[in-house]
Amino acid sequence: MNFFKRLFKGNDTEAELYQQENTTDHLPADEQFALHFIEKGGRFIYCASEIEAQEVFRNILKELGVTVKLSSNASSTIRSVFEEHLSLLTSDIETSNVYLTDCEYLITSEGGIMLSSNQLRHRKIDELPEIFIVFAKTSQMVRDINEGMRGINSKYPQQKPTGLITLKCFREKKSDNNINDLGSKFKNTYLILLEDLPIEKP
Predict the structure, then answer these.
(1) Is residue 49 within 8 Å of residue 37, measured between CB atoms?
(2) Cα–Cα 20 to 30 A to 116, which of 1, 152, 166, 174?
(3) Structure pTM?
(4) pLDDT digit string, tens, across residues 109-167
């Protein structure tokens, strides 16, 4: 069984059927985000610990194959969590085909990933590899872009990052019925989501 099917024990088609038959507003933020993200073509993996996140990362690299040339924004978070893999990173973005990064926020209502110049290394999104591996934590989830922007203003009171973009198209489509996604930049994206909030008991 493909390890990307772990959350829903099914594929993105099943996630789409679930979304058609059920409203997502009542769901926990991580499940709501996952449904939207998978529907848009993203590959979502939930992890309960950093050890599990590291194992998932190794599995992703195996699935991508031996031709992986990995570059990264090399933030303190990435360096801490994926320390054992730092030797695989290249500083040459132009020759890399996979990009490892963290993010600013996850937009639950859209299944989108908010990135800034801190993650994009002050480059345009088109200048980065087509395959993204994004590492995020459940505490980074916000309801919508407005809430994300408020978070940016609070997080960077002195000098706000430039080049803000919400990545929300994770597979190439010949036709798109969602007008909100028209013209969106496409990146084949794996999201490793680490639980860092207390889990509520029923």
Answers:
(1) no
(2) 174
(3) 0.83
(4) 999 999 999 999 999 999 999 999 999 999 999 999 999 999 999 999 988 898 899 99
- What token pair was written down for 4? 């990307």
The pLDDT, as a whole number, for residue 66 is 78
The string of DSSP letters for the chain reads --GGGTTTTS-HHHHHHHHHHS-STTS-HHHHHHHHHHHTT-EEEEESSHHHHHHHHHHHHHHH-TT--EEE---HHHHHHTGGGGGGB-S-GGG-SEEEE--SEEETTTTEEEE-HHHHTT--GGGS-SEEEEEEEGGGEESSHHHHHHHHHHH-SSS--S--EEE-B-S--SS-S-GGGTTPPB-EEEEEEE--SPPPP-
